Amino acid sequence: MEEHLLNEFEEFGLAPNKKVLEKCIELLKKYNITPDTLVNHWIGYTATKLNDEAPSLENLILFEKDLAKELSAKTKIKSEPLSESPIIHNITTITQITEDDELLVGYGTPVRKSSVGAKRSSGLEGTPQNKRLAGLGQTYSVHTPSSFSPSTPGTSSKFSSRNNAGEVVVKYPADDVAINWTRTNETREPDIQLHGTAETKLTTKYNYMFSRIRDKFEVLEEQINDLGDLMKKKLEIDDFEPNCVLKSETFHTVGRICCDATSGSRLNTSSLLLEGNRNTSSGQSVPLDVSQLKEFSFFPGQVIAVEGSNPTGKKMVVTSITTPPISSVFKTDVSLEGPLNVMVACGPFTLPDDLEFAPLVEFIQQVNTLLPHLVIIMGPFVDVKNKKVECGELDYTYQEQFDVVMRELQSKITNSVQVCVIPSWRDVHYRAVYPTPPFPQENKVSNFKFFSDPSILNVNGVFIGLTSTDILFHLSKEEIAVAPHGSDRLGRLVSHLFSQQSFYPLNPASEEMSIDLEQAEDHCKLSFTPHLLFVPSDLRHFIKNVNGCVVVNMERAVKGFCGGTYSRLQITGGASAVQIRAEIVRL
C-alpha cells in the first residue's frame, strides 16, 4: 500500500516523507478509500486552498477535515431513499410549479430545491445547455471591445492578491547563474519557418473525422510497418515471424499494443494483446504473458517488437521487448547572431469562473517588460471547460470573444517582439479536432504568425516542437509499467513520443480527443528529435534533457483559481551546437 501511495504522489511530482506517508496510510484505513482517491482529493484541496503546497503533517490535519466532510456528503447522497413512485410532470404541472416558485420568491420565501423551475439556467432566457453550442441562440448586448468581458465578475481578486508572482520554480541547468532576461536595444528579428508538411491540407475545407475504416486501417498498418523496419535494423534480423504460430523456440514478432476488452476496460497485465500487421501476422492478435519481464512500459497504440515463444499457439510468453530506436537530435546549421530570448505560455488565460483574462494581461506586461525576441502563446484562449462558457453566460458569441482576445494581444504586445500563436482543440469557437488547423490570419499584424497544433518550427536552425494538447497526462492515465523505484516516470512518458515518432502515439485516444488519423499521419509525426520540445501538461512542471532534447512542461497560465506558470529561455549556439538555459516562473 505504501508503494502504491508513493507512486500516486510521484505522478504529480510530490515526494512526501516517511511520517507523511504513515499519516496518509492512516487516513486510507480510517476512511476505507484507495490511494488514488486520497491523492486526487489532496491535489484538488491543495490547488484551491493551499496554493499547491507539498503535503505535511500540519496541512494534512486540515485536509482530513475537508476529506471527511466531502466523503460524508457523498455517503448522505447515496443513502437517500428513492421515491416509491416517480412523479411525472406534464407541461401544465411544470408551468404551475414555476409560477408557484416565482410567487414564493416575491414574498421572500426560499424556493424548493427540487422544483423544476429551480433547474433553469441563471443565464439568459432560452440559453441552450449543450456545452459546445451554449453560445448559440442568445441575444447579445452591444459592448465596446475596450475590455475582455464587460460583465463577468468572478474570482480575479484571488489572482490579484497572490504573493508568489515572479518566483522561479525550476531552473535549467539547476546550478545555473542568474540570467539577464531584458533585451538590449537590438532590433534583430528571428527567422521563423514551419518545418515539415505544409499546412495547406489543414487550412483548406475538409470533412474531418469522416475517414473510412479502410483508410484508418491503412494509416495504422503503415505505422507498424515503418517502425518495424527500424526495429529490424536495431535487432539485426531479416524479418519478423507471425505472432500466432505454435513455436516453443524463441522468435521475434512485431505489432501494436491493444487492450482485451473482455479482461477489463483499462490496460493491465491480464488484458495485454499484441495486434500484428497484415503482411506478417494477417492482422491477428495474441495475448502476452509478461511475467518473465523485470521491467516494461506499455500503453495502447504502442508499436513494439517482442521476443518470446508461443508453446500453445494461443499466448506468447515474452522474454524481451524492443522499442523503436530514438533518432539523434537533428543537426543543422545554427545561425544565431547572439542570445535568443524566448517566452512561452499555454492557456487557459483566465480563471475557471470568469472571462476577465487577468492572467493574460499580466503575461502581456511581462512580455513588454522583458522584450524577448520570440513569444509562443498556445491555446486554449476561450476554453470549452470554462464555467461561463459551459453555462452560456457570455456577453459575446464565441468567435467575438476570441476576436477580442486576439485584438488585445496584437494591440498591446510591442511590434519588436515576434509572436507565434498555436491553437487548441479546447478553443470553443474553433474546430474540435486534432491536429488543429492554424487560426485564420485575417487582420493580423506583421509580427504575429499562426501555426497548427502540433508544429515544428525552425528558428534560425534551432528546431522547436510544440503541442498544446496534454499528451503526457493522457499517457500517464493509460500506461502500465514496472520500473525500478525512483525511476524518472515523466522522462519515460516523453521518451515514448520520440520512440513512437509521434506527438500523440496513444490509440485509441483519450475520450475527450477527436483525432483525424489521415491528417495526423502528415501533421503529427515527430520523425526526428528536435532541440526543444514544449509539452504543457496538468502534470507537475519540469525541464528535462531527454535523449539530447530539452523538454519543457511549463504547465498552464492558470492553475485552479490561482496564477499558473510560464517559461522563459535563452538560446545560444553556432554551427551545429545549441546551448539552452531556461526557467519556469510563476505568473
Automatic annotation (TrEMBL):
GO terms for molecular function: DNA binding. Keywords: DNA replication, Nucleus. It is found in: Nucleus. Residues 218-321 form the DNA polymerase alpha subunit B OB domain. InterPro entries: DNA_pol_a/d/e_bsu, DNA_pol_alpha_B_N_sf, DNA_pol_alpha_bsu, OB_DPOA2, Pol_alpha_B_N. Gene3D superfamilies: 3.60.21.60, DNA polymerase alpha-primase, subunit B, N-terminal domain. It comes from the Eukaryota. GO terms for cellular component: alpha DNA polymerase:primase complex. Residues 3-67 form the DNA polymerase alpha subunit B N-terminal domain. Pfam families: DNA_pol_E_B (PF04042), OB_DPOA2 (PF22062), Pol_alpha_B_N (PF08418). Residues 342-544 form the DNA polymerase alpha/delta/epsilon subunit B domain. GO terms for biological process: DNA replication initiation. Accessory subunit of the DNA polymerase alpha complex (also known as the alpha DNA polymerase-primase complex) which plays an essential role in the initiation of DNA synthesis. PANTHER family: DNA POLYMERASE 2 ALPHA 70 KDA SUBUNIT (PTHR23061), DNA POLYMERASE ALPHA SUBUNIT B (PTHR23061:SF12). Belongs to the DNA polymerase alpha subunit B family. This is DNA polymerase alpha subunit B. The lineage of its organism: Eukaryota, Metazoa, Ecdysozoa, Arthropoda, Crustacea.
